[in-house]
Design a protein that fits this description.
The protein has about 350 residues and is an alpha/beta fold. The protein has 2 domains: about 120 residues, 3-Layer(aba) Sandwich (Rossmann fold); about 160 residues, Dihydrodipicolinate Reductase, domain 2, CATH 3.30.360.10. It is built from 12 helices and 13 strands. The strands form 2 sheets. Strands 8-9-7-10-13-12-11 form a 7-stranded mixed β-sheet. It has a 6-stranded parallel β-sheet with strand order 2-1-3-4-6-5. Strand 5, helix 7 and strand 6 form a beta-alpha-beta unit. Helix 1 packs across helix 12.
Length: about 350
């Protein structure tokens, strides 16, 4: 059995990690880390775990944790994992970091967008960006994985094939994104109160959202050169889900069959990326509670643009599910182990 520890186990992503790992046949959770609930029964924090998890919450002592487990998941605010990690810890255990600390390769870019000084930049070059469908081979050999953000996962997987194949102009990409409120975390915030969110939709982080440089970096790898995008996220009144609608100019006339063939080239053998049938637009309800990403496209011959669409659950493929997918690769397990979750409907 793989022994796992979770720092940040009482946030939404951490709670989802617990839900998935308790059903994983090869994993035993040994450490439920939470600064806010030390010594409190985990099932008192998340009552859905009553008679399922009997353990109490512990602190975030990564030094001690690394001596007890094979893998550590850090579902924590930016800067915490990077402040706790060191070479000695990495020599003992593998780490899957769900924060942004090691996602962006340029430390100046990270510090500019996240407004903090990076505590351990020496590990940035080593960290593998854990988008399994693109970096699978590197993840298998990694001891430190930077689990991608939710918006970047859905956006990159929706756009990557057409950009990689040169079918769209990198300078014309616009991304409209929508997320449920769990994407903002479990902390109490006025903007996330029921009366603020219910019957309302709003843009936020316009031209300043922290996932922008992460998306640009990943799309830049596909394009083979730097990419700048317009990225506008919106908060919608639902618990879970991300919907991406991206627009770009085509570099030449193409048929729907040609574009579909490109998506199939990259994703036909992928378990968790589903390319939908022609003219079927992705919906968040079709992926809720699962590790699937549904993608599709529509060509607009009038404007010579293509609309690329993606939907996924922000807490599963956008966070905890992808983290487990990365862990499976790191330990040589079946990639889908513990993740064959049928989407919930309705």
């Amino acid at each position: 059995m793989i022994k796992a520890g979770i720092i940040g186990a009482t946030g939404y992503a951490g709670g989802e990690l617990v839900r998935i790992l308790t059903a994983h046949k090869d994993v035993e959770i040994k450490w439920y880390g939470s600064r806010s609930y030390i010594d409190k029964k985990y099932a008192e924090v998340y009552q859905n775990m009553f008679q399922i998890v009997e353990d109490s919450c512990l602190d975030d002592n990564m030094e001690e944790l690394s001596r007890q487990v094979d893998v550590i998941f850090t579902a924590t605010p930016q800067g915490l994992c990077a402040s706790l990690i060191n070479e000695e810890i990495l020599s003992r255990t593998k780490i899957v970091d769900l924060s942004a600390d090691f996602r962006i390769k340029d430390v100046e870019t990270y510090e500019k967008w996240y407004k903090i000084t990076h505590p351990s930049p020496q590990f940035i070059s080593e960290a593998v960006y854990g988008l399994c469908e693109i970096n699978r081979d590197a993840v298998k050999k990694a001891r430190l994985v930077a689990n991608p953000g939710c918006y970047p996962t859905c956006t990159t997987l929706s756009i990557y094939p057409l950009l990689k194949e040169g079918l769209i102009d990198p300078d014309t990409i616009i991304v409209d994104a929508k997320s449920g409120t769990s994407g903002a975390g479990r902390g109490a915030k006025v903007d996330n109160l029921f009366c603020e969110v219910n019957e309302n939709i709003k843009a936020y982080g316009v031209a300043t959202h922290r996932h922008t440089p992460e998306i640009e970096e990943q799309l830049g790898y596909a394009a083979g050169r730097p990419v700048l995008i317009n990225f506008t996220p919106h908060l919608v009144p639902m618990n879970r889900g991300i919907l991406i609608t991206a627009y770009a100019s085509l570099t030449r006339d193409v048929s729907a069959e040609e574009v579909k063939a490109v998506y199939d080239k990259y994703y036909a053998s992928e378990k968790f990326v589903r390319v939908l049938e022609q003219d079927v637009c992705p919906q968040t309800k079709w992926v809720e509670g699962s590790n699937y990403v549904d993608v599709n496209f529509k060509i607009d011959p009038r404007t010579k643009r293509v609309i690329m669409m993606g939907a996924m659950d922000n807490l599963v493929k956008g966070a905890a599910g992808q983290a487990v997918q990365n862990m499976n690769l790191m330990f040589g397990l079946k990639e889908s182990e513990g993740l064959e979750l049928v989407p919930m409907f309705p």
